[in-house]
Amino acid sequence: MSTKIKKLLISQPAPADLEKSPYRNLVHKHNVDITFYKFFEVVGIPASDFRKTRIHISDYTAVIFNSKNSIEHFFRMLKELRETVSENMKYFCSTEAIALYLQNFIQYRKRKVFFGAQYFSDLLEVMGKHRDEKFLFPCSDERQTEYTKALDKAKFKYTKAPMYTSKPRDLKHLDIDSFDAIALFSPIGVRSLVKNFPDIKEHNVLIAAFGTSTHAALKENGIKLNIAAPTQSSPSMAMAIENYILGKAQESVVTTKGDGSKHGVRNTIATSTAKRSKPVIANKEIYKQRMEEKKAQAAARRAARAAEKAAKEAAAREAENVQQAATEKAASDAPAKAKAPAKPAAKATEKAPAKTAAKTTAKAPAKAPAKPAAKATAKPAAKPATKPTAKATATKKK
Description:
The protein has 398 residues and is of the alpha/beta class. It has helices at 24-30, 47-51, 68-81, 96-101, 120-127, 146-153, 187-196, 212-220, 237-245, 284-339, 342-367, 370-397, and strands at residues 7-10, 33-36, 40-44, 62-65, 90-93, 112-115, 135-140, 158-168, 181-184, 206-210, 227-229. Strands 3-8-7-4-5-6 form a 6-stranded mixed beta sheet. A 5-stranded parallel beta sheet has the order 2-1-9-10-11, with helices on both faces. The relative contact order is 0.09.
């Protein structure tokens, strides 16, 4: 038996793309008309008020982020205070989505970023390996939340740094009676609803709420909870509402996966450490598509690793062949090098006498006998030839 929910009010801002949001199945499959409107607004605490806390951000070695608001106001406060953080600063994010959002403010690869699987207690497990760090927790100005309770029970050394506050918005322009159900996600959302509609208990509207702290806020104000999340079969609000529409029985609520203590981190409702909750995706087609994409990515990574391994093996074989060829060449050149010194000695002995003989034969006749013989033969021959001719001419003239 199905329960009619035709108009639904979600106390959150509208998603960027409804087709990719968890509420797509409610719209297309169950024809639910969804209105998105955030019940509160987040306002940053001025830097002048933050200085009164005497918290110096540069004194800390790690930061804990549990929402996008905490990231935005942390870096806003850094800018207003004109402080810088060390390059060795570690960032611990409650989910991967929040860790990816951190890329808008830092160079993701050059920093040390850690994140949990799905619950805040998953992040506590990761933080347990870094207990020596000095943690800073940027958060709202609420006195205590489920996150601070978990950190206290896990006995982490951290400092709560209030950087923003949540203020209820004016909701009186909304016609509450026109909606069949209202989905709430935080205690501030409950306070905003009660502030704008003090007689909300008298209105014939279903109340859906996510998280134990939101459930506790409803109980404090005496408001009945009709649809609770997360549960074992519906870890998201969209799935919880869909199960309610399909007439499925309400299950017990899953607490935040243990109390954050050493022994309570993995104690979910009768679930083992090996079992993890499915991703928060209401549409089965989108879920299957994402699983196929993950399988394809895993296959591509395996192929890349296999190709890299084959390339390394080929390079090792080639290096081995080159080394073997070098050793064989060195072995073949060894006898030739042993015979090589005898040849220069023989050449030296053969050339040495020839050179000395050539030098002695060339120099010996050229030193003394050659020059005097040339002078002796040239001078006597010239004088007798000139003198008789001169005398002869003189006698003829007389």
